[in-house]
Amino acid sequence: MSAQTEAPLFTGVERAVINRLQLGLPLTPRPYADVAEELGISEEALLDTLTRLLDNGTLTRFGPMFHAGEMGGGLTLAAMRIPDHAFAAVTEQVNHFDEVAHNYRREHDLNMWFVLATETREDIDRVIADIEAATGYPVYNMPKEEEFHVNLHFPV
Amino acid sequence: MTPRLHTDVCSVLRNSPPASPWGLLRLRKLLEKGVPLTPRPFQTLAEQAGLSEAQVMDAVDCWQNDGLIKRMGLVVQHRTLGYRANAMVVWDIPDEQVSRLGRQFADIPFVTLCYQRPRRLPDWPYNLFCMIHGVSRDRVEGQIEELIRTHQLQQCPHAVLFSSKAYRQRGGCYVGSD
């Protein structure tokens, strides 16, 4: 994305750290020192900045994203059509399932969208059946057929 | 039960002595919490997992190559970074064109995820899904118009599903919807 965000305001160092570390951490014995050198700051300044951004909640975590689909488990995107009057109750029922990883309300006839991540591929069908039984509404199962790889980056 | 960790693939590629599956399992659990903010984070992880620093670095390298680790870096809450609008844009693309168009979409800087998924007729005719995160709804709408113009998709049925609320997000595991 080329767009600069309007808010919140970051210092120059914070900006540099956030943008650089989204690209990854080098696999070297002193990776923070190497990144700091690249950015022209000290290792201590980099670690302090990172600690502060994590502590104040700007950043969620620093570490690898595991690709659930590569770990042998099941993974799918699912959608439901839930009437307004039932939406809150069904949301609660759906989120009660540990396998539900993200749940978004979206503006469409199919208005509830969530990801299911299960221990094994076979579990997907079972969890979908359980969700349908618990809520009384059908679940549309939309597993990926092909992934087109993007370089995810949110510049600030 | 032996943990499923792709260790077979890794051991033949690396120089460090093979790590025990249990050590690797401990390492994975530790990594799910994050990389330590210490000057030698891989050494710190090694001490906690009962491995050597070299084994930790080899394992991470291997998991990255395998695709088990999708990305080794900051996990950002795009909302707190100022990206407040998130739209899932879905398209009904003829099957023989979907791969080509999917690859083109994935190269567009503002497209943050792109997948081919099955249609669910008659309710759901769309087979190509892309996610756009932007600073505002107006901006995202403009980006969608730009995408339609650039790729000449004026005739192509599509729908834009802005999210109005996130009810659950979970860190640590990339699961591909957001």
From TrEMBL, chain A:
Residues 76-148 form the Siroheme decarboxylase AsnC-like ligand binding domain. InterPro entries: AsnC_trans_reg2, HTH-Siroheme_Decarb, NirdL-like_HTH, WH-like_DNA-bd_sf. Its EC number is 4.1.1.111. Residues 14-58 form the Siroheme decarboxylase NirL-like HTH domain. It catalyses: siroheme + 2 H(+) = 12,18-didecarboxysiroheme + 2 CO2. Pathway: Porphyrin-containing compound metabolism. It is an enzyme of class 4 (lyase). Keywords: Lyase. It holds the Pfam family NirdL-like_HTH. Involved in heme d1 biosynthesis. Catalyzes the decarboxylation of siroheme into didecarboxysiroheme. Belongs to the Ahb/Nir family. Probably forms a complex composed of NirD, NirL, NirG and NirH. All proteins are required for the total conversion of siroheme to didecarboxysiroheme. This is siroheme decarboxylase. It comes from Marinobacter zhanjiangensis.
Automatic annotation (TrEMBL), chain B:
Residues 81-167 form the Siroheme decarboxylase AsnC-like ligand binding domain. It comes from the Bacteria. Its EC number is 4.1.1.111. Signal peptide: none annotated. Coiled coil: none annotated. It holds the Pfam family AsnC_trans_reg2. Residues 30-69 form the Siroheme decarboxylase NirL-like HTH domain. The keyword RNA-binding does not apply. Pathway: Porphyrin-containing compound metabolism. Keywords: Lyase. Transmembrane segments: none annotated. It catalyses: siroheme + 2 H(+) = 12,18-didecarboxysiroheme + 2 CO2. Belongs to the Ahb/Nir family. Involved in heme d1 biosynthesis. Catalyzes the decarboxylation of siroheme into didecarboxysiroheme. Probably forms a complex composed of NirD, NirL, NirG and NirH. All proteins are required for the total conversion of siroheme to didecarboxysiroheme. PANTHER family: SIROHEME DECARBOXYLASE NIRL SUBUNIT (PTHR43413:SF1), TRANSCRIPTIONAL REGULATOR, ASNC FAMILY (PTHR43413). This is siroheme decarboxylase. It comes from Marinobacter zhanjiangensis. The gene is nirL.
